[in-house]
Sequence to fold (539 residues):
Amino acid sequence: MGSTYDARPAAILAEGWGWRHAGRPQPAIQGLDLRIEPGERVLLLGPSGAGKSTLLHALAGVLGDEEDDSDETGSLLIDGVAPRAQRGRAGLMQQDPETQVVLSRVGDDVAFGAENLCVPREEIWARVHEALDDVGLRTAAGAGLALDHPTAALSGGQKQRLALAGILAMRPGLILLDEPTANLDPEGVLEVRDAVRRCLDRTGATLVVVEHRVSVWKDLVDRVVVLQPGSGGTSASPGKSAAPGVLADGSPGKVLSEQRSMLMAAGVWVPGYVPPTRARRTGHSERGHSERGNSEPGAAELLLAAQDLAVSREKPRRRGFKSIPPVPVQSGITAQVRSGQALTIMGPNGAGKSTFALTLAGLLAPVRGQVSAAVELSQGAGIDPFRWKAEQLISRIGTVFQEPEHQFVTGKVLDELMFGPKHLGHGQERVDELLERLRLTHLVDANPYTLSGGEKRRLSVATVLAAHPKVLVLDEPTFGQDANTWAELASFLSELLDAGTAVVSVTHDQEFSSVLGGTELRLGPVPQDRESRQEAGAA
Fold:
């Protein structure tokens, strides 16, 4: 059987192209002139909100709908044809890999795209094995995840690798990656980058990758394109060689060295640069980063305690009249959360970091052990946060999920921020401050789902802070942030710590952890198969 997929390297041409999302008064990107030749490897940079994700979605042919009130100007073509007319020519890995999981088993999910492109069956499964090996989810020796492993049991970082494996198995002529390593542990970052390199070397495909952290990709790409903030002229002027809508364009070495100061001012993460942040009041280094261990743990008031905790996202199963408890993803965790102190949770993907954080926040029931709230935090609500009512929980423990969209409940940014305060009887004073500090003021009337990934993350943080919780639990808080918004967010959280708020963070961002200081809890790797986890949990 012949296949209908087209693996030839793709050419991209944008001429005066722009896009305005439905319900937004200003375009996300406008006046863009850009040519990318077949087989080029391009790193697309720019501040948060510059339109990078919008461009990738447009190239994948999945942007907007003819029936909504979005607006397109100019032209954007792949091989001379509109992307929407040739979906499948490009493979897109989105910022939120959760949205790309289609099927319930790992192998089937990776095969899905190739099947839809009518790749011959015998070739599909060879590609599935190869792609899973490449991204570190399954080795040639058969270790790691089985093909029938449930996708629902994967961590956020593992889903990110799974999404990439599905794209690599398609072998499209154009590979589009939107923050592909943002939620990965350091080892996973290198595995994913090297997997992309191997695929490009085999197929010659054109690559456009969006990533705030430049150092990982600068040696793989042959060109760096920096989108202008506002993509049309609201900020710095483009360089002499740059086209309209483009701030800088050239080889990685040339752009990152000759235009370093300009890129830093624009918020681009240039290698070796860490933006200055507000220093904590309790001990700091010369560049403003707090030092661990400068304050005695017992000096701050205890708010939450986890004792010998075993955690899982699974629910108990029934076998006849007997209830079978979930198999823990991690066991024996003991930790304390204290007023005005930071607790950073680190470890490899799949170690149960997010599951532990959600259990600590009262959103998941422990498999074993106990999470206890001190009187100062509970204020009569009871010792067990999992038994608190919703209004009791949000005013005491605020949780920012790994996927921002999972906590949006309205159709407008301002309404989203006012949702918690209205239900708690608070005023708008904190809302106005949050809008300004987190650079969201110009988006008050926008639909939260049309924001960039970085803007969504800042909005999700702001909605939780608007309720004045005493404990803040953040899952990958710096995801999608440019250098400037990263520094603003880190500085703001440092102020909250100094004011007595406890901050719990799940992160792979060592610089962010260093800024907040406090205590680091590192969770070790766990077995992937259920039987081994069951044995480890019982030990």
